[in-house]
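W.,

You were right to be curious about this one. When I first looked at the sequence I had no strong expectations either way, so I just let the prediction run and decided to look at it fresh. Below is the sequence, 328 residues in total, followed by the output.
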Amino acid sequence: MKPPPPTLQRLVDIARRLKLDRSTGLLVVALLAGLMAALAARQYLSGRVAALEAKGRGEQVRLVVAKTDLAAGAVLSPEVLAIREVPATWAQSSAIRPDEFDRVQGQRLGQPLRSGEMLMWSQLESRRAPTFSARVANGRRAVTVPVDEISSISGLLEPGDRIDVYATVDRAGQRQTVAVLSHVRVLATGQRVSDEPGKGDRRLYTTATLDLDPQQARNLLLAREAGRITALLRNPGDATLLADVPADFALWLRPVAPPSPVAMALPGIPVLYGGRNPSPDPQALALLARSLPVVQGAAGDASQPSTPRSSVEAQTASAARTVDSPLR
């Protein structure tokens, strides 16, 4: 007869020690054997499930994901992003890895991102090159003017240079040249805005862009329409401002009124206003009397005698003693 297995033999020995009868011992042995079989099956199944899950997951990769829902324009930082392992088969080729986070930190989202979604390069705001307007400071204006061979200093004008601008215009029937701008900075020549020094070669361009304040911009535009403008190049270390630059070029362009013929013939004549000059200068009035012509009567008219100068002086002296009364 074949001996029982060791485990079953142990159970039989335990039953004998407990002095159980044959039927009770067999029942206990059966229960214990079933329990052991259940434990073994559970262990086998657990291992099998784990193996199947591992096989289904495949290779894991670490990706950057959103901690919470992020709106478009949100700034990317460690406070709003996290790292999560996902199956390699689920990872997008443009997804951002943890070792690439330094390149995206501080940038902004171009579109919303939900919590747990992986961050991709295509979701970032595009980084455009700074526009030319970024070079214009607050309160300043960039004004582009046409230049030629003379006003561009033979094509050697460079971005960053300092220049004076003169205008040659017709004023009061004469050709005059006046300073319009002093010590202004050149922002660009043509489409070249680089500040790197030139190499001495001539550059072809037809415009120059200057950095001005609003009033300077108005003066330059008016001077360009009124006549011809010319640029004079300065030494970089020369910061002296020209003293004869008109503050308002429009006022400077206004024609100068010629002096009155009466004022030219009778200098120093006071103008009396009622109640405002109660004490006119007697000497000025006497000067006026001596300078007035004497009115003679018509020829052959004995009823129109001439007025003697002494009578005019007497009337003038009397007027000097008269005080105007203020209007009531």
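Here's what jumped out at me. Residues 60-123 form a domain with the Type Iii Antifreeze Protein Isoform Hplc 12 fold (CATH 3.90.1210.10). And, maybe more interesting for your project: The beta strands are 60-66, 81-87, 141-146, 162-171, 174-189, 207-212, 228-233.

Coffee later to discuss?

I.
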